[in-house]
Specification:
This protein has 450 residues and is an all-alpha fold. It has one domain: MFS general substrate transporter like domains (Growth Hormone, Chain: A, Up-down Bundle), CATH 1.20.1250.20. The protein is built from 19 helices and no strands. May be a proton symporter involved in the uptake of osmolytes such as proline and glycine betaine. It is found in: Cell membrane.
């Protein structure tokens, strides 16, 4: 497109459409992701593995299929980042949405180990790999759909729409399994567990309709011809390696810290040494997800006032100081305090999550922004999100069940995220780069507050 083409400023109407498209799509994809996670914990050990297998080993194998997706995310980021940087954010996001829906629906019709033997878990792993590819390409594109469509001084707020998708998707998934559990364990294992997976096809239809109606982002649509790269990945590795690695560090808290403060804390409370009723933590986590969903957009809006970096600093550091009383309350078996600190740490973690879309979008130039963001996020999710539970488990084994070793590891995640935020570069060209609405008019959106 010619650089002389006049471009209209981003409006709130355009931004709201982009934000809602990001929210609906990411909510559906995270719903699919968390439906699998829930089933991996309570269903798959009974369905896709031999009946005579030790229950602990069956659960371990089931979580192994869950972990596969984390390590597919970087590849998904590379593949769909290339599509998004070459063909546009909209087609890339349409493909990821369809892939996720197809993979999730297929899980809902897979025969179990009793019917097809070893092919059951093999096909399950293949479906999970496709889910990982789709999620790896989803977040970066959805973030850019929201952020690049937003007016100046509103970038972080509209970027927060993408971030709301995670807690909303988690709520939908856990709510679905909670409702089906009312049918009884026998019905749940026999057939009811398939319903949330099959329902995905309906949600994908809704998401496809919403994304079909949204416009391509102005930044991509008006890229100067000379800026286009034949291979965005090579450009990213050559020119963006440093910010990619800084983004990798930033993810340490919102991925690794999040897993420890939620899933791993739940497992710790269920150990023989603590022996808390699992419903205590589950109930607190469910309410915390709802609270997180409510506070994400206000926290994101705060980033437009004091800077995305400042919000990230507060979220990262405060999360470390909340994990300590959370552990103490679990050890004391104080249910009221457990609920307070489970909810509170989800609020503080929102500070490390809500402004993430805008912060990372501002780290990269348009030429390979989708690829660079997705690769950075995918690597962070794979390492921090995929390995943190294993590292925390190993620390408990080495220290004889001393959870303070895990708190120390949480501290290392805090330091990593702080360093990433501190040195993250911030560029101003989140507005269209040509025509009457020049990128320089958007410099007010970059408020780093270092």
């Amino acid at each position: 497109m010619s650089s002389s083409t006049a471009i209209q400023p981003n409006t709130h109407k355009r931004a709201l459409k982009g934000g809602m498209a990001a929210l609906v799509g990411t909510s559906i994809e995270w719903y699919d992701f968390y439906v699998y996670a829930t089933a991996a914990a309570i269903i798959f050990p009974h369905i896709f593995f031999p009946e005579d297998l030790d229950p602990a080993l069956a659960t371990l194998a089931s979580f192994g299929t869950y972990a596969v997706a984390f390590f597919m995310r970087p590849l998904g980021g590379i593949i769909f980042g290339h599509v998004g940087d070459k063909l546009g954010r909209k087609p890339a996001l349409t493909i990821t949405l369809i892939l996720m829906g197809v993979a999730t629906t297929l899980v809902g019709v897979l025969p179990g180990y009793a019917q097809i033997g070893i092919w059951g878990p093999i096909l399950l792993i293949l479906c999970r790999m496709v889910q990982g590819l789709a999620v790896g390409g989803e977040w970066g594109g959805a973030s850019l759909m929201a952020v690049e469509s937003a007016p100046p001084k509103w970038k972080t707020f509209y970027g927060g729409f993408t971030q709301v998708g995670n807690p909303l998707g988690a709520l939908m998934a856990t709510g679905a399994f909670w409702a089906l559990s009312l049918l009884g364990q026998e019905a749940l294992l026999a057939w009811a567990w398939r319903i949330p997976f099959l329902f995905s096809i309906v949600l994908i239809g809704v998401g496809f309709w919403v994304r079909y109606r949204v416009e391509e982002t102005p930044v991509f649509a008006e890229k100067v011809e000379g800026q286009e790269q034949s291979t965005p990945l090579l450009f990213a590795l050559k020119n963006n390696w440093s910010p990619i690695m800084l983004g990798f560090l930033i993810i340490a808290m919102s991925s690794g810290g999040y897993v420890i403060a939620t899933t791993f804390v739940q497992n710790y409370a269920d150990t023989p040494e603590i022996g808390l009723d699992p419903t205590i933590i589950l109930g607190a986590l469910t309410v915390a997800s709802f609270v997180e969903m409510l506070v994400t957009l206000p926290i994101a809006a705060l980033g437009d006032k004091i800077g995305a970096k400042m919000v990230m600093y507060i979220g990262v550091l405060s999360s470390f100081f909340v994990i300590i009383p959370l552990v103490l309350s679990i050890q004391a078996k104080n249910v009221a305090l457990i609920w307070v600190f489970v909810i509170l740490i989800r609020i503080t973690l929102s500070g490390a999550w809500a402004p993430l879309s805008t912060l990372m979008a501002q780290m990269f130039r348009p030429q390979s922004r989708y690829t660079s963001m997705s690769l950075s996020y995918g690597l962070g999710a794979a390492v921090w999100g995929g390995l943190s539970p294993a590292i925390a488990s190993l620390l408990l084994v080495i220290t004889g069940g001393n959870f303070w070793s895990v708190v120390g590891f949480f501290g290392l995640l805090t330091i990593a995220a702080y360093i990433g935020v501190r040195f993250a570069p911030q560029h101003s060209d989140l507005a269209p780069v040509t025509g009457s609405f020049n990128a320089r008019t958007d410099t007010t959106a970059v408020n780093t507050h270092d």
